[in-house]
Each structure stands twice: as C-alpha cells, then as structure tokens.
Amino acid sequence: MTDQTATITLGDTSVDSPVLKGSVGPDVVDIRKFYGQTGAFTYDPGFTSTASCESKLTYIDGDEGVLLHRGYPIGELAEHSSFMEVAYLLLNGELPSADALAHFDNTITRHTMLHEQLATFYRGFRRDAHPMAIMCGVVGALSAFYHDSTDIQDPHQRMIASHRLIAKMPTIAAMAYKYSVGQPFIYPRNDLSYTGNFLNMTFAVPAEDYEIHPAVERALDRIFILHADHEQNASTSTVRLAGSSGANPFACIAAGIACLWGPAHGGANEAALNMLREIGRPERIPEYIARAKDKDDPFRLMGFGHRVYKNYDPRATVMQKTVREVFAALKVNDPVFEVALQLEEMALSDDYFAEKKLFPNVDFYSGVILSAIGFPTTMFTALFALARTVGWVAQWNEMISDPAQKIGRPRQLYTGPTQRPYVPVDKR
Ligand code: ACO
C-alpha cells in the first residue's frame, strides 16, 4: 500500500481508491469498493488494465523485455538451471539445495505412471484427434482417479495433486502422440531425466530403443523452462478462474489446456511453423509482410506480437540460440530457419512493426526446433501444456492459499433488450 489515493469522480460522488505498490512494476489502484460506493462498474474487456490477483511468482516488464521467475531472469535460468529446478522454484519460492532438488526429482519421477485404466480411455478417441483434444479429456479424467488429493484446503494434498500433474503430463502427452500414430504406449522409465523420459516415451518403440541425444535433451529441457510460467496469461487466468470455485485441480488444469489450445495463445507455435513452411523461400517474405500489414487481410505474422512484450521477447532470444545448437547437433539444414531469420530481419526494419512494437515472441522459433527434433506440428501445443502445467499448479496453489481469494465473477456492460413481456408463438 502507498499513501497515495486515486480519486475518481462520478457525478456528485468522489471515490478515493487506495493505490497499492508491488515490489516492482506499475502501481495498482484498488477498486474493490468502487461498485459499493458508486453503483458503477469498471469496464476492461481483455483485462488490459486490470490486475486480477496478487502474485509472487513471475514478473514481466514488457517494455524492457524482462521476465523473472521468483526474481531470477529467464535467460539465467535457461542457461544454468533445469526444468525440474525451475518447477521447484516456482512451486516453493526458492531455488532448492542439492538434496532438496534430488528429493523433488525423485518424487516427480515416482509419479510418472498413469493408472492403467486410463490407457483404455485413449481408445475412445479417433486416431486423428488433435493431441490437445486428447489431453483436455485425459487430464480432466484424472479428476475421477485421484480422490485422495482433492481436499484443496489441505496444502499437503494440494502439493500431491501438483506433483502428480507435473509428473504425469509427459506420459499423457507422449501417449497422445503414440495413439495418433498407432504405436504402442511406452511406459515411463525411472532411470531417465524428466525430459529424457518424455523423449523416450514419445520416440522409442518396443522393437527399438531411442537414443537420447544430450543436446536434444538439453534443448527440450530449456524449451520447457521457457514455457514454465508467464504471469496472468489467458490459460493461467482460466486455471485460476476455474479453481476459484473450489473445483477439482485436475479439472482446472484441463480448463487451462482448453484455453492454451487457441491460435492466439499456445497454438501460435504450430501456426508459426506452418506459416514459415508456407512461405517456403526468402523471396516470398515481402508478400507475407505486405499481407500482415493489409487491414483488409486477416492474416497476421504468427509468432509476432504480444499483449505484454512491446520489446524483444527474452524467450525468443534464447530460442534463436537453441535452434543453432539443435541444428548443429542433429546436422539438420532446414531452410525454414533461414526463412525465419530473414522474416524477422525484414519485419523488424519495417515501420509498421516498429510503430506497433511487434517483435518475435517465444513461439516464432520454438516450432523450428521441435520440428527438427521430430515432433509433428500438432504436438507443439501439447509440449507447451506439459511445461506450463508447472506455472498453472504454482499459480493455483498461490490462489487457494491467498486470504483475499474469492470466486472469480466479473460483471458486464449490458446492452441487450430491457425487460419486455413474453409473446406467445402464434402472436409473433
Ligand atoms: N501481425 C500483424 N499485425 C499484428 C500482429 C501480427 N502478428 N499482432 C498484432 N498486430 C497489429 C494488430 O493488427 C493491431 O493493429 P491496429 O492497432 O492497427 O488494429 C495492433 O497490432 C495491436 O494488435 P492487438 O491484436 O490489438 O494486440 P493484442 O495485444 O490484443 O494481441 C496477440 C496480441 C494476440 C499475441 C497478437 O499480437 C497476435 O495475434 N499475434 C500472432 C499470434 C501469436 O504469435 N500469438 C502468440 C502469443 S505468445 C503466447 O501465447 C505464448
């Protein structure tokens, strides 16, 4: 809280609203009593000016291109940390000691198996179902399996549910992939790392082992770090809103997966790679830039622009470097990377993108890497969901333990018909 107040005058009524101060970032006007004092709502579709909660997890400065998890810059975490360590950090607030990390890693490893009954659940889906459709269904179905971890007021049970979700998501995503290609499911292996295990469950077959390339394992782990949390984005807000009613945690994460699937959010990495492939060769880039600028054409450069970043997305910087590493390790020479680099360069030197502060976001390069590793485009968003589960459960835990937490219930500006009498069908 600051000693400042914001005064809003509405007709004859003046309301003084306290101004709250975070540890860093913009001040926040507390309008909780505004409706009670004025009888008026505030209007903010898309929450562009509204802080929906207090949080200690992640800080973004979109103008400066800064992303911090519990205070640590994303670039440093991507360089020096591991996904398991970042998961621990987000859930617990501090970096773990070596012992604490080993214990956490072991706990997650020992929760990676799915109830065997869930394997039959997959068979209810068509083989051509999108992996995100399967993940939505299967994760939602977990709520029917783990009744012992659903007293959400008990922090211990909340943590068990969180560990289960983080641990089982790679198994669920890999099984969604296996189902779509008609291969048998591969069980998790406790001798592998979190990310190595996911690669193995995705690409191994019973007839042949999959050799985990250390550079690929490291690159994918880094991609998971980059996607672990991102403040109050659409899917995280969905998880919080669903959870605010006291709903089952597995069902809340299924809601987050549904939201993430959209092309304006997690679906953008799939859309970005499809766009780069469609462009195909550098000579065609100007045509696509012109289309993106044309007001009469709904086309947008996918992987460009961000609601919060009005500068280079710091995750895109790490991604661009990771493309080079993976391509070198796998000896890949996909022309799509050259198209991406040249598209970025041309867009960044174009007034339209400069004026609107449109820069590459995390999704611009991630598809290029995932494709080189061997993932089909339909799996990209599933991988994003896998990683973001860490942020979702950390944010959900934070919300439930927040004494100011209430059921989320926005209001509206109603512009429909006013009250009118019902007209019987023969009189219409
Ligand atoms: N290509 C061309 N023009 C764009 C683009 C783009 N990628 N993104 C925004 N613009 C333009 C809009 O047309 C608009 O122009 P106008 O002011 O003349 O009407 C202006 O920039 C602002 O765009 P909004 O859609 O109002 O910005 P908003 O903050 O609502 O949208 C979003 C952000 C959804 C990410 C948008 O930039 C977009 O659609 N990008 C492409 C999809 C994408 O990459 N999504 C991934 C986001 S990151 C993530 O979810 C992990």
Automatic annotation (TrEMBL):
SUPFAM superfamilies: Citrate synthase. Keywords: Acyltransferase, Membrane, Transferase, Transmembrane, Transmembrane helix, Tricarboxylic acid cycle. It holds the Pfam family Citrate_synt. The keyword DNA-binding does not apply. The keyword Nucleus does not apply. One of its GO terms (molecular function) is citrate synthase activity. InterPro entries: Citrate_synth-like_lrg_a-sub, Citrate_synth-like_sm_a-sub, Citrate_synthase, Citrate_synthase_AS, Citrate_synthase_bac-typ, Citrate_synthase_sf, Citrate_synthase_typ-I. It catalyses: oxaloacetate + acetyl-CoA + H2O = citrate + CoA + H(+). Pathway: Carbohydrate metabolism; tricarboxylic acid cycle; isocitrate from oxaloacetate: step 1/2. The chain crosses the membrane at residues 364-387. CDD domains: EcCS_like. Belongs to the citrate synthase family. This is Citrate synthase. It comes from Sphingopyxis jiangsuensis.
